[in-house]
Amino acid sequence: MEEMRRGVPTWQEELASLMDGGLQYDDGSPIGQDSRSGFESVVDGSGSGSESTESLKDQVTGFMKSWGEMLMDLAVGCKDVVQQTLVSEDSVVVRKLRKPAAKLRFLNEYLPEDRDPAHAWPVIFFVFLIALAALSFGSDNSTSVPVLKKLRLHPPGASRVELPDGRYLAYQELGVSSDRARYSLIVPHSFMSSRLAGIPGVKDSLLKDYGVRLVSYDLPGFGESDPHRGRNLSSSASDMIDLASALGIVEKFWLLGYSSGSMHAWAAMRYFPDRIAGVAMIAPMINPYEASMSKEETAKTWEQWPRKRKFKYFLARRWPSLLPFFYRRSFLSGYLQPLDQWMSISLGEKDKHVMRDPVFEEHYQRNVEESTRQGTAKPFVEEAVLHVSNWGFSLPDFRLQKKCKANGVLSWLMSMYSESECELVGFGKPIHIWQGMEDRVAPPSVTDYISRVIPEATVHRLPNEGHFSYFFFCDECHKEIFSALFGEPQGPVELTEERTETHEPDQPEIGSSNTSTTKG
Description:
- By secondary structure, the protein is an alpha/beta fold.
- It has a domain at 146-405 and 429-493: Rossmann fold, CATH 3.40.50.
- It contains 19 helices and 13 strands.
- A hairpin with a 5-residue loop joins strand 2 (159-162) and strand 3 (168-175).
- Helix 8 crosses helix 9.
- InterPro entries: AB_hydrolase_1, AB_hydrolase_fold.
- This is AB hydrolase-1 domain-containing protein.
């Protein structure tokens, strides 16, 4: 029994074996006084068979190395899992993306020959993200950031008329009353504008001198006008005619289109020419994809615009659903951004001088507040899409020309000696165009194209004028416009005098002159 116990280690022997550099009992003798003295010598480090104790620094270093090795093994394992489940030829992701990716293989031609597309494109993608983040959040500490004004919501108070389809259209009237108006002038507003624009800064005294009743209105979805589903240029022209009828303008009226508002003036000229007495356009805009423009005219027009503006035209034509993203980051953000910033245009010095005027700043803010009253991007997207879509007509349609009903050679020969079978088609009313030669929004090349396809139009080329400088808060400019349209001022119609709303002022014969220069 005693021999069997000698083969089993005692608890003192097990404790000694667990010690770091623990005690050794080579002779197998029981623990006694000598053994305890040996234990003390080992702890003190004086024993001949002992080793030095590991420091805390060495323990931390070993711990970190072990964790690093574990993380490396984990990363290698994750990489293998990703390659086997996502990148392999049999994975679900690769099978679904194989066909769309095949359409983009042509992009590999732009990579260097020694670059593997599988490695190059991820690098390009991440570099693009980094650059985009730098452009979005980076700022130059040496330049001051302007404080943006917050847009306010004003209580409604516009006059409105009900249209035949039940919608309501908001409008504003200036000048003389309807019973004393010698001329009625209707103004459709431009993009990001409202009925409050009209003719910015026009004097009431000037309107009375010429007997003008000035009517401006909110396009559908803008200001206080109801939206219109399926809006197009034909419905826009119908809204204008219905508004005129509701306001008692039963005879011919004049049109004034500024910037993109000229698009709606073109539509009224096309669909209701008999209701129009004449047209004035300031810095007119056309469809930038107009098919009747020559390659030189198209190139000359597009080269005037920066890439950001070209990109927005491209989105409006191809992916208009992306436009709200940009609109909500600019004029629909609730804050008033600088005009040239959201227009993506570097304006000329004269336009910048006008924009720094406090009167202009107040007008601009109030106009934007009214334009964005409904808080939705839909009417702005509709307006942008209308601008670049097929209008349903072309500007050469307004050119005056004879159209003969010749069904054969004999009828054609008879038409040469008799005009009974011929009629004059086109727009035969006065067309006046004012174009600033320093305009960078609607460049002069646009007016050059209009002058080519509609030679009957009278073009007033304005040296040193921009997109805003001639039309906004310029009393002399407004007087020149009215003088060209209406001749000498005759004042309002007296109650005993026959109204001359349908009588056009003395105009030069159509085709006699197509250009004139005013206001140097």
